[in-house]
């Protein structure tokens, strides 16, 4: 009873009006399936890291891949099995465990090494999150100099795209996974995407490859 009284203490009773029910998402028209659906959409959008997914610097195919990875919609082996495909589920990147979206991009040995390279390059300490979605929620919160922030916000896209491209080349082209080649591809993406940033326009591809640490210090 005391709890109920506490909840009601901030409300006033209007004796000249009869009781009524109000549908908060649309008080004027009341409940409808449309208003209920829109309220669900609004809640979903608040819980989705849209600002971290839809970046302006990476190409649209990369941001779409990031969106699909965040929602676990990429055609990884576990996803294909859920759709009825009969496949042996093994991560082709590490060969140790089953391939899932979060394993492939975060917890696979190859992915962990690439994230470790990023952390070392930017001199940060962090724990790999459980999911791509968690990664995108926490990534913008890392404090960096303003000069390199736009580039920093594209790093997850570069890592995800590098891993996805490498994984597909291993499966469909029979290429051998080489970490040096993975790092080179990653740096090449950063170089290509940074062309739109004023401070990076004076650097050449060779600077990104051979003077990576010096370049980052200049940010």
Automatic annotation (TrEMBL):
Keywords: Nucleotidyltransferase, RNA-directed DNA polymerase, Transferase. Residues 31-115 form the Reverse transcriptase zinc-binding domain. InterPro entries: RVT-Znf. GO terms for molecular function: RNA-directed DNA polymerase activity. It comes from the Eukaryota. This is Reverse transcriptase zinc-binding domain. It comes from Macleaya cordata (Five-seeded plume-poppy).
């Amino acid at each position: 009873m005391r709890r109920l009284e506490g909840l009601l203490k901030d409300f006033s009773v209007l004796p000249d009006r009869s009781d009524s029910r109000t549908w908060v998402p649309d008080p004027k028209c009341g409940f409808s399936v449309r208003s209920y659906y829109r309220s669900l959409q609004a809640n979903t959008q608040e819980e989705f890291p849209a600002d971290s997914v839809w970046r302006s610097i990476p190409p649209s195919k990369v941001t779409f891949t990031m969106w699909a990875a965040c929602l676990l919609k990429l055609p990884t082996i576990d996803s294909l099995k859920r759709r009825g495909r009969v496949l042996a589920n093994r991560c082709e990147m590490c060969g140790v465990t089953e391939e899932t979206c979060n394993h492939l991009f975060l917890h696979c040995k190859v992915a962990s090494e690439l994230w470790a390279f990023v952390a070392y390059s930017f001199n940060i300490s962090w724990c790999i999150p459980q999911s791509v979605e968690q990664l995108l929620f926490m990534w913008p919160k890392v404090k960096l100099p303003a000069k390199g922030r736009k580039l920093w916000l594209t790093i997850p896209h570069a890592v995800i795209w590098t891993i996805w491209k490498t994984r597909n080349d291993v499966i469909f082209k029979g290429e051998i996974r080489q970490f040096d080649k993975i790092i080179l591809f990653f740096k090449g993406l950063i170089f290509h995407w940074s062309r739109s940033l004023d401070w990076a326009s004076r650097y050449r591809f060779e600077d990104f490859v051979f003077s990576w640490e010096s370049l980052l210090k200049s940010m």
